[in-house]
Design a protein that fits this description.
about 525 residues, alpha+beta, Uridine Diphospho-n-acetylenolpyruvylglucosamine Reductase, domain 3, eight-stranded antiparallel β-sheet, five-stranded antiparallel β-sheet, 17 strands, binds flavin-adenine dinucleotide, binds NADPH dihydro-nicotinamide-adenine-dinucleotide phosphate, binds lanosterol
Length: about 525
């Protein structure tokens, strides 16, 4: 099983085997027995945190007071921007530990912080099939609210705590992205407070330059205060078909054929367990299910999803099951993909699942807050977390590069399309194109792993094939390399025109590893 290979702790052959033992007993426990802290403190704390937000959002939504308060809250953002002293550039006041990214931004310490306390779903319009959300609405909150009413957004990025604002300003992807594009492509308009404190709305037809420049700009063009998104009808189940593949050629050709399929699959996903074996999953929503084939994989006592999928590979059989929609959306949530193995090593044990599985996963934000310096350094040296987005045509070559450089399994494969719109993300060949997200999270299985050098070699490969790197992880590119990967023409024009240069840091200074703690 993939699980037995994964550990963040340096092995004797590792390049970091001479790292010093962590100082102090608390650090020692944090590093060697992180699960003690997680089980006795973080899981109960995560539970209480969820109850608080769940109750608050429920009350706010039921009494429909959010739209009225929205204007007042936006006026407060405008006031903060207008009274900015003009010295240090601005960023949002959301603390770094709360965000779903590997590191915290160093700029959070030096920038002038603007509080954007906008946490509500504002309006659901089933006639125009749109939803208006404030930027701190989380994916967990949004799918809960919409699915109960029979709706959903076409692209629901994994992980409950991802926010609408973070996904618009960064990027978001899910297994429906080959049909609907990235999170930015399901957005119809944005409401922003600009550097001068003015409030603007932008869409394809109104301020299009701004509309196309907001995604991937990481809050360096203005503060987002609301987003209008498409919604689509939700169905009760997702019918998932599992197709085990026993060679790289077979996996790549199955994955590509299912992504291109004329009649279409609503969801396409791949999990690679070694360079020569993996499972391609295709899925479609439906309202009825065959008797005996429903699998509520989100239930607390169920095995982790990636281990469940691996069983199809072990048996060498194709399979079909019906998964309730929200369970499907959250299939990787309980195991934080496969990262939970390093945090609660016995988390997939059946006794643990029945007793405490309902408290899992711990909140990523609380894990970040309590990880300590020694744990941070261990992850830094022995852990590799990257999502590289490469053209579908380069998929096989890219997987071979990942195998040579890091040899981490499982690998997450998710196809998506890039539309030929202006902005940071220009598709290869200038026309709409299909890409694949190669998500690699874990401890490298090679002896010569070096965080910076290895990542830079992979980044160079991604640039060569005209791909992109997701910026929530560590990027070691130089400014020139970063500007080669992302088209800055429109971004630079807007930054000048809207006098952003003093008001916000430039995007590179927010996302590069040099500027992370
Ligand atoms: C009004 C409202 C406001 C909310 N606000 C917030 C908020 O501000 N912040 C926030 O983080 N969350 C928020 N949530 C979401 C909620 O806290 C999470 O989605 C929580 O994980 C839901 O668990 P559940 O068991 O009650 O879901 P259920 O309705 O029981 O979920 C349906 C199915 O999906 C599965 N499932 C749901 N969530 C997960 C998961 N995380 N992992 C695995 N399977 C899962 C369940 O096991 C179940 O089978 C809000 C929800 C509502 C209704
Ligand atoms: N499945 C997926 O697609 C996944 C995506 N991710 C990544 O996680 C990140 C999102 O995480 P999340 O914790 O939600 O977001 P973050 O708090 O990390 O925010 C990401 C960026 O968006 C900016 N931003 C957020 N809200 C606003 C706003 N209202 N106005 C202006 N700028 C804003 C932040 O600016 P500032 O720095 O000023 O705070 C920050 O630079 C994205 O980068 C995404 O790519 C991670 C895991 C999975
Ligand atoms: C595009 C997709 C699907 C991306 C999924 C990315 C996840 C696997 C990433 C996002 C945030 C992430 C980097 C994180 C971690 C694991 C991998 C995560 C969850 C953990 C929890 C690993 C343990 C670490 O000590 C620490 C708590 C800092 C991080 C926090 C962020």
């Amino acid at each position: 099983m993939a699980s037995s290979k994964i550990s963040i702790y340096p092995s004797s052959s590792s390049s970091t085997s001479n790292s010093k033992p962590p100082p102090g007993w608390l650090e020692y426990i944090l590093v060697n027995y992180r699960w003690v802290i997680v089980i006795f403190f973080l899981l109960p704390a995560s539970f209480l945190y969820d109850i608080y937000y769940y109750t608050r959002s429920w009350v706010v939504f039921r009494i429909s007071s959010a739209p009225h308060n929205h204007d007042k809250k936006v006026a407060n953002v405008q006031r903060q921007v207008r009274t900015w002293d003009g010295v240090a550039p601005m960023c949002t006041a959301r603390p770094g530990w709360q965000t779903i990214s590997f590191r915290e931004g160093a700029y959070k310490k030096t920038c002038h912080k603007v509080a954007i306390n906008l946490v509500d779903v504002l309006r659901i319009d089933t006639k125009t099939q749109t939803v208006w959300c404030e930027p701190l609405v989380t994916m967990g909150q949004l799918t809960h609210t919409l699915v109960e009413l029979g709706w959903t957004i076409p692209v629901v990025p994994e992980m409950d705590d991802l926010t609408v604002g973070g996904l618009v300003m960064g990027t978001g992807i899910e297994t429906s992205s080959h049909k609907h594009g990235l999170f930015q492509h399901i957005c119809l308009s944005y409401e922003l407070v600009l550097a001068d404190g003015s409030l603007v709305t932008c869409s394809k037809d109104e301020n299009p330059d701004l509309f196309y420049s907001v995604p991937w700009s990481y809050g360096t063009l203005g503060f987002l205060t609301a987003v209008e998104m498409k919604i689509v009808a939700a169905q009760r189940f997702v019918k998932v078909e599992y197709k085990p593949c026993n060679s790289l050629e077979n996996l790549v050709s199955t994955f590509r054929a299912e992504t291109w399929k004329a009649e279409g699959n609503q969801f396409v996903e791949g999990l690679l367990y070694s360079l020569q074996s993996g499972v391609v999953m295709t899925a479609n929503m439906c309202n009825t299910a065959e008797i005996g084939k429903i699998n509520e994989i989100g239930r607390w006592y169920k095995p982790w999803f990636f281990t469940h999928v691996e069983n199809y590979l072990a048996r060498g059989e194709c399979g079909v099951e019906y998964i309730p929609l929200r369970d499907y959306y959250h299939r990787h949530t309980r195991s934080i993909f496969w990262e939970i193995q390093d945090i609660i090593p016995f988390g997939n044990n059946v006794a643990f699942r029945y007793l405490l599985g309902w408290l899992v996963p711990p909140k990523v934000s609380l894990l970040k807050l309590t990880q300590g310096q020694a744990m941070k350094e261990l992850y830094e040296k022995n852990h590799f977390i990257q999502d590289m987005l490469v053209p579908l045509d380069s998929m096989k070559e890219a997987l071979e590069v990942f195998h040579k450089e890091v040899k981490i399994y499982p690998i997450w494969l998710c196809p998506f399309k890039v539309e030929a719109n202006p902005g940071m993300l220009r598709p290869v060949g200038g026309r709409e194109a299909l890409y694949v997200d190669i998500g690699t999270y874990g401890t490298p299985g090679v002896n010569n792993y070096h965080p910076e050098e290895t990542t830079r070699r992979i980044e160079a490969f991604v640039r060569k094939v005209k791909g992109f790197q997701m910026m929530y992880a560590d990027s070691y590119m130089t400014l020139e390399e970063y500007r080669e990967m992302f088209d800055h023409v429109l971004y630079d024009k807007l930054r000048k025109g809207m006098v952003c240069e003093k008001a916000f840091p430039q995007v590179y200074d927010k996302v590069n590893r040099k500027f992370r703690i």
